[in-house]
Amino acid sequence: MAAEHTEKSIASTIDHAILKPEFTRSDVDRELDIAAEWGVFSVCVRPSDVAYAVRRLDGTGVAVGTVIGFPHGTTSTAAKAAEVRQAAADGAVEFDMVVHIGGLIGGEDARVVDDIRGVVDAADGSIAKVILETSLLDDEQIARGSRLVEQGGADFVKTSTGFAGGGATVPHVELMRASVSPAVQVKASGGVRGLDAAIAMLDAGATRLGTSAAATILGEARRRAAGEAATGAEDSSSY
Asked: Which end of the chain is more exposed for a tag (fewer CB within 10 A), N or C?
């Protein structure tokens, strides 16, 4: 594992996703405990779980975010803004909205920007991320969508919900990174389930990872670092 990618540094990029619709409260508890145990940056929970997650994670240093207009992006801008305001009142500090996918594909750029700006305004200075759902888009739409995210004032452009039959790819992350200024960050989400995949996304330009596999990724990082340390000790003992 490259020196710049440590367990701690990777954990600082992870938004641990707790979004499955079938999750019970005990499932949510398990995932929140995983997030706290591994010291990830944040959790991304269902809107109805925000207040509970904030209470349960109090004192852990793990931030709480949620999803907006999820997973299809087809709710009205007013509804998305209302979701943001309620989630903020419940304690969420980051908001991952789904772009109006049909509007993006159809070339309704002004409509897409207005939708994003409505959520950004409702977030009132908190972090706003925009999910493009890249598995449904071609390269032109991904590049244009990324630029529209910047025009709308959001902080991140994000690949995927993880619920549309596809997830992040290195070429898509690279394309998104190349399509926006340094003021906008890239979040890779969907299908990032192992250490090598996480490192590949970070090397491609992502600065945040959305994944439900935080324990797997960080466990691999810990084991790999221990193995490298052991190898180094063996090598030094031969001199």
From this structure: C
